[in-house]
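Supplementary Note 3. Input sequence used for the single-chain structure prediction.
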Amino acid sequence: MHTDGFPKQEQEQPGLTGPMDPRPDHGETSYVGAGRLAGKRALITGGDSGIGRAVAIAFAREGADVAIGYLPEEQEDAEDTAAWIELAGQRSVLLPGDLTDEAHCQWMVRETLSELGGIDILVLNAGYQEARDGLENLPTEEFDRVFRTNLYSMMWIARETIPHLAEGSSIITTSSIQAFNPSPELIDYAMTKAAQVAFTKALAAELGERGIRVNAVAPGPIWTPLIPATSWPDKLPTFGQDTPLGRAGQPAELAGAYVYLASEAGSYVSGAVLPVTGGKPL
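The predicted structure, written as discrete structure tokens, is reproduced below.
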């Protein structure tokens, strides 16, 4: 467990695991499954690294086959995640492409259905953020990229998936503490995270009668490739130090929340936002 700040470092988007110092913990050597998702089939966007990789590893060790979506630039990370899925004895499906393209989102769902035979768990996790120096300096193409990545793709993928979900299926979105406590330099990102909460609650109300649960996880400061790729290297030495636990979280510390919401342990939980924030209140 890393209890200090992080060295100054910077990456170009989308951010990769390899150059990170220190390397994030995705539960590779620590997560122990108990068959809680045996026979399930999951699609995870942004499953190549960070929270998505931790969830993919946990799901596989709980008995699920896992398809992951990611950008082509993240192929090496995706292959590493796939190796962990397969080491757990489960099937992996790699789905490279750009989530800001509607046709790709539709293809990704169809390919998962074809390769795995269905979808029982949909994790809408992919996200994009960048540090801003004032709304007046925010280019349209940049907030368009944030909205299309964080919101449009989520709508497209869920819309394509819902007709194929059976009773007992689960949809989980990755929102953020930013939905409730927005930082000015992440204004557009925070807007999308707040919208994801509304999406989660509205969709939970819509799908409840079909026995499909919809929930969100709201992470706080978590050490993923998105952080060094956000153009704020000066913040890294104190990243996460303002939480009551006094440190940033590791992706592995999120995995249990997703397993809970996807499994029978969360069978009466829907429309919820589960905070994993190091003690910061929503």
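Residues 58 and 97 are 23 Å apart (CA to CA). Residues 140-161 form the longest helix (22 residues).
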